[in-house]
Amino acid sequence: MDHELLRLLGPGEPEVSCDDCFAELDRYVELELAGEDADGVIPGLRAHLRGCPACAEEHESLRALVVADTPGGAA
Amino acid sequence: MTPAPSSRAAVAIDGQTAGPEQGAARPLDAESQAWLTALRGEGPERDEAVARLHELLVRAARFEVAGRRPSLPHLRGGDLAEIVEEAAGDAAVSILARLDDFRGASRFTTWAYKFALYEAAVKLRRRAWQGRELPLEPESWTVVPSTAPQPSEVAERAELMSAIRDGIEAALSRHQRQVLVSLALNGVPIDVLAERLGTTRGALYKTLHDARKKLRAHLAAEGFDLEALEMGA
Q1: Which chain A residue has the Cα nearest residue B121?
Q2: Of B9, B47, B109, B137, whose CB has the highest number of CB atoms within 10 Å?
Q3: Dihedral sign of CA atoms A19, A22, A27, A29 in order
Q4: CB A24 to CB B13 under 8 A?
């Protein structure tokens, strides 16, 4: 589904709420960066990020900041 | 105000499926434990920890502002510095009020960062739309695919958009219609609309979710193959 239709119709699969996304975001990012199965551990969060641009932006920022914080990560 | 995370199991927004227990507790790493001990302490030790926390949050808020600055050319350096300070301050208040919510599911610094990033992002979105009227009705129905379409795809797209327009008019409540059109069609940030309507991001997203669900049901009833759309067909 292209970006414009996704914005209108949403991810079309079970997703967590914005509040639960915020509650789990730090754990999700660390699981992702550790190469673990973040989507298996926290189902519905990836779908929410596809449907909610604001939460998706904050996910991207947190991931980038944690990477920048990691020795050897991007500055 | 940052979202209020619950301590129950993560549940899908429509309440149909459950995930694992949120932030399953695990032994804290030494650094995270040191943060908690110092922030729960008293006197100079706590003051020093609060000051270090503030520095950490300022750094995160600056990171967010720096990342968004290219898309906000009208905001001046003074505005951005003010947003950084306000975001760090609001994040610190939230964090200190919620220390008991931190159960070691991530490092303490990662947990703390998300509050500052959230506060900075929300303030930037709102500042960018300050004083602007919010479009609640469709400004344009020209929703084009991301890739150059073939002529047959143009016709299919027009048919789909016509059905979507009908669905928005016929299947949604007035409130659902305004929320869907503002957020999904006119690109109003959810935090901006939430502030204008006096509600929260979470409540507004639930409305958006319900509207999308009704719209999908309408399209399915009209014979559109949503699974094919999911596959990008």
Answers
A1: A58
A2: B109
A3: positive
A4: no
